[in-house]
């Protein structure tokens, strides 16, 4: 019998008496059962809400425009960069836009 919530050196005994909170499906995405406790984790692009159970999309555009040179479009689990009509996507970076040129001078 385990008298303490957390006793790693008696792990094999503790696990028997530990309640697996993950069996109750308390997490929106994924649950990690810990001795005497549990932890909810979220997929990439999401952050754990204050309730410790639900996952919330991270608006990457709130931070430095998501690294986009022009437009940033937030999406669930990610984001994308976009270019205004006067620009086109740079071939070097998906985050950068370059002015559309009709002449062949600029690169
Ligand atoms: Ca997002």
From TrEMBL:
Pfam families this protein is in? cEGF, FXa_inhibition
InterPro entries reported for this sequence: cEGF, EGF, EGF-like_Ca-bd_dom, EGF_Ca-bd_CS, vWF_C/EGF_Fibrillin
Alphabetized, the UniProt keywords read: Disulfide bond, EGF-like domain, Glycoprotein, Repeat, Secreted, Signal
The protein's matches in SMART domains, at most eight in alphabetical order, are given as: EGF, EGF_CA
User: Where located?
Assistant: Secreted
The EGF-like domain covers 18-56
Coarsely, its chief localization is secreted
* Transmembrane annotation, as ranges: none
This protein is called what?
EGF-like domain-containing protein
Organism of origin is: Xenoophorus captivus
């Amino acid at each position: 019998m385990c008298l303490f919530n957390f006793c790693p050196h008696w792990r094999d005994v503790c696990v028997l008496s530990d309640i697996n909170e993950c069996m109750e499906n308390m997490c929106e995405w994924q649950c990690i059962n810990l001795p005497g406790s549990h932890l909810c984790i979220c997929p990439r692009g999401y952050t754990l809400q204050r309730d410790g159970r639900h996952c919330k999309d991270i608006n990457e555009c709130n931070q430095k425009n998501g690294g986009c040179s022009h437009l940033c479009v937030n999406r669930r689990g990610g984001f994308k960069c976009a270019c205004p009509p006067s620009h086109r996507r740079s071939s070097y970076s998906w985050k950068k836009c370059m002015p559309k040129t009709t002449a062949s001078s600029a690169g």
